[in-house]
Specification:
two-stranded antiparallel sheet; globular; alpha/beta; 5-stranded parallel beta sheet; single chain; Rossmann fold
Length: 218
């Protein structure tokens, strides 16, 4: 897929786990860390090994936030090339539902939060039928139905992937904690902001929303 090809041309992660991506981050590194974007799981899939920075004393895998930052940029540039109303963002995870809805409202995308109706990407007879140009999944595991249908109709998939996720059908991986309330708000806030910036040719845009605006209630 074009999205993954664009990412694959860039340096990914060096052998010591440090990101090779230079330059400033989209937000201060401390903001990434305090939001928990980097905190992964104890289980690790083979396909996510390259995004791991280190393993903590408690067995949790820590993601490389510079790689997360770089791939948010790539995902935003990719999505900005598409009509907003042809992008579908989904989340069956509770803490991902509000971020997905606000992301969609901000960028003009379509959101299917909570339950994804089986067949809505493949069955034209359903009232919920929709033909997106790209799919954004909060978790490839919990959003498996949407992911499967996207694969069957051949559209690219952008996925927030935790350390334990399989990425076989995800074209553009954003390595991130996709279970944490604040982590999900942070990633979707950044993705929304960067999509708007990319549409504006990289210029600063009026973006009054905060990470808290994307954060799900407890």
């Amino acid at each position: 897929m074009p999205a993954e090809d664009a990412v694959a041309e860039e340096p990914i992660v060096a052998s010591d786990g440090q990101s090779t991506a230079p330059g400033e981050l989209l937000i201060p590194e401390d903001t990434y860390l305090t939001s928990g974007v980097h905190i992964g799981t104890q289980q690790k899939s083979a396909s996510m090994r390259r995004f791991v920075f280190k393993v903590r004393f408690d067995g949790l895998h820590v993601l490389d936030v510079r790689e997360t930052d770089r791939r948010i940029r790539f995902a935003a540039k990719f999505l900005a090339r598409l009509p907003g109303d042809r992008i579908l963002a989904v989340s069956q995870r509770q803490y991902g539902q509000k971020p997905v809805r606000i992301f969609a409202k901000t960028t003009g995308a379509i959101s299917f939060a909570e339950r994804f109706v089986p067949g809505c990407l493949t069955n034209p007879n359903l009232p919920e039928y929709f033909e997106p140009k790209a799919l954004v999944v909060t978790d490839p595991a919990t959003d498996q139905q949407a992911l499967s249908e996207a694969v069957s109709i051949g559209i690219p998939v952008v996925g927030l992937c935790d350390v334990n996720n399989e990425t076989r059908f995800v074209d553009l991986v954003i390595p991130a904690n996709n279970k944490g309330r604040l982590a999900l708000a942070t990633v979707y806030w950044l993705l929304a902001r960067e999509v708007l910036r990319a549409r504006a040719g990289g210029a600063e845009v009026d973006f009054p929303l905060t990470i808290e605006d994307f954060q799900a209630a407890l």
